[in-house]
Amino acid sequence: MIESPLLQKMMAERDHKHILEALKDRFGTVPSDVTKRLCEIVEEKKLSQFMRLANKCADMDAFRQALLA
């Protein structure tokens, strides 16, 4: 199925919100560099991986390292 860029962007924004909420619930404030880098990602598969990581990573630095890799 081919998705429109607009639909892909909307879905990514929803995923960004959920990932950032998970990180905030677990670690408190989310650093702006993490937010900025995460919001640059629109690929559904990558965002799904980061959602799982946000729910199980040891700390914010572990998430940041995976995000920057």
Low-confidence stretches: none
* Major sheet summary line: none
The mean pLDDT is 94
Number of domains in the coordinates? 1
Tell me the number of strands.
0
Q: What class would the helix/strand composition place it in? A: mainly alpha
Radius of gyration: 12 Å
- N to C succession of SSEs: HHHH
Helical content (DSSP H or I, runs of 4+): over 70%
Tell me, what's the shape? elongated
User: Which range does the strand content fall in?
Assistant: under 5%
Number of helices: 4
Question: Termini, distance in Å?
Answer: 29 Å
Describe this protein with a few key phrases.
69 residues, mainly alpha, 4 helices, 0% strand, elongated
Brief overview, please?
Helix content is 77%, strand content 0%. With 69 residues, the protein is mainly alpha-helical.
Overview of the molecule:
This protein has one domain. With 69 residues, it is an all-alpha fold. It is built from four helices and no strands. The protein has helices at 5-27, 32-39, 44-56, 60-68. Helix content is 77%, strand content 0%. The longest helix is centred in the first third of the chain and has 23 residues, at 5-27.
